[in-house]
TrEMBL record:
One of its GO terms (biological process) is signal peptide processing. The keyword Hydrolase applies. It comes from Drosophila madeirensis. It is found in: Endoplasmic reticulum membrane. GO terms for cellular component: cytoplasmic side of endoplasmic reticulum membrane; lumenal side of endoplasmic reticulum membrane. One of its GO terms (molecular function) is aspartic endopeptidase activity, intramembrane cleaving. The lineage of its organism: Eukaryota, Metazoa, Ecdysozoa, Arthropoda, Hexapoda. The keyword Secreted does not apply. It holds the Pfam family Peptidase_A22B. This is Minor histocompatibility antigen H13. Belongs to the peptidase A22B family. Residues 358-373 have a biased composition (Basic and acidic residues).
């Protein structure tokens, strides 16, 4: 069994590199070509669906950033080291999935992935619906709070393993999300797929924070070459995207006009082409917000650049009749625009100096530790003196 798996892996890797020069030829499609109107509707819808998570996710990221700052909670941000290693980790994961699909039956892999993404999708969608439900729910419906707390240890060693607060409104959101999840499990309908995909994208843009502009540049630059290699250099990414039955991409039928909701000829856009530029654009909105200006020039200009980059991707794809690495067009657009705006406004230094959560210098940390040590020492000595007096 082990020898068979090794031989299969070798043949798979050999096949990848043998097909480097052949894969760019368009494979004949058995599906009936879609009408120009249907194609326009499909790609127009994909562009709109790509823009919405970036807009709403960016706005929510600003609120989350302010909330964490007000509570003093330490934010989880991507470091420069994380950004450097991200393309390598993503490449390993992508190639691993490709090998799995080549070695094992797709049915079994997709069965496991469907269950995993069902749970994630329900949670992501419920989180997204929660603020909407709070505003729509009538005042007559009571909002009863609940708090699940599961700790380990005692005293100073006490650690929260589960600390989750929710209300009856959140339970309603969870029920609605579960119904959509069951629909996705049973039918794998493209609308249910998109609902989960949009939830993942909005939550991703909201919660994945880049700490500064340089980290964003490192991340986008690395994924720029990652996308080019795996799309143009091999057939790995296209194969995985077509084999992977999970809401990691947005889809829209090109034959919707002809076949209605039962359409089957889909155009698709990976969530990575939304979330990766999205977290960079969200950083620019937080930068705009930190300057207390009325205009959000960095955010709006880069959002417009993202739109143009996406349109360029679709245009080139149809001209050359071949899948395009979207980040090939999106990365230069999203990185170049804020740099150009900063250069015109004379704010290059300000842009590069901005940090969501400024790191304390070692000297300041040492001073803080000394102050804390002296204060704790003085308090303990005072306690001893009071005990002696007693």
């Amino acid at each position: 069994m082990a020898d068979e798996v090794i031989d299969t892996v070798k043949e798979t890797i050999k096949g990848i590199f043998e097909n480097v020069n052949v894969k760019n030829e368009t494979a004949p499609s058995e599906k009936k070509p879609s009408s120009p109107e249907g194609i326009a509707v499909a790609y127009g819808s994909l562009v709109i669906m790509a823009m919405l998570p970036i807009i709403f996710g960016s706005i929510r990221s600003v609120k989350l950033h302010k909330l964490k700052k007000s509570t003093g909670e330490k934010a989880d941000t991507m470091t420069k080291k994380d950004a450097m290693f991200f393309p390598l980790i993503a490449s390993a994961a992508l190639f691993g999935l490709y090998l799995f699909f080549k070695i094992f039956q797709k049915v079994h892999i997709n069965f496991l992935l469907t269950g995993y993404f069902f749970v994630l999708g329900v949670i992501a969608l419920a989180h997204l619906l929660s603020p909407v439900m709070n505003s729509l729910m009538p005042a007559a419906v009571p909002k009863v709070p609940f708090h699940i707390l599961f700790t380990r240890g005692e005293g100073k060693h006490k650690e929260d393993l589960i600390n989750y607060k929710f209300s009856t409104h959140d339970i309603v959101c969870l029920v609605i999300s579960s119904v959509i999840g069951v629909w996705y499990l049973l039918k794998k309908h493209w609308i249910a797929n998109n609902l989960f995909g949009l939830a993942f994208a909005i939550n991703g843009v909201e919660m994945l924070h880049l700490n500064n502009f340089v980290t964003g540049v490192i991340l986008l630059s690395g994924l720029f070459f990652y996308d080019i290699f795996w799309v143009f250099g091999t057939n790995v990414m296209v194969t995985v995207a077509k084999s992977f039955e999970a809401p990691i991409k947005l889809v829209f039928p090109q034959d919707l006009i002809d076949n209605g909701l039962n359409a089957s000829n889909f155009a698709m856009l990976g969530l990575g082409d939304i979330v990766i530029p999205g977290i960079f654009i969200a950083l620019l909105l937080r930068f705009d917000d930190s300057k207390k200006r009325k205009t959000r020039i960095y955010f709006y200009s880069t959002l417009a650049a993202y739109f143009l980059g996406l349109m360029a991707t679709i245009f080139v794809m149809h001209v050359f009749k071949h899948a395009q690495p979207a980040l090939l067009y999106l990365v230069p657009a999203c990185m170049g625009t804020p740099l150009l705006v900063a250069l015109i406004r004379g704010e290059l230094k300000v842009l590069f100096a901005y940090e969501d959560h400024p790191e304390e210098k070692p000297e300041k940390k040492e001073n803080k530790d000394k102050e804390e040590g002296s204060s704790s020492g003085s308090s303990s000595s005072k306690k001893k003196e009071s005990k002696k007096a007693k």
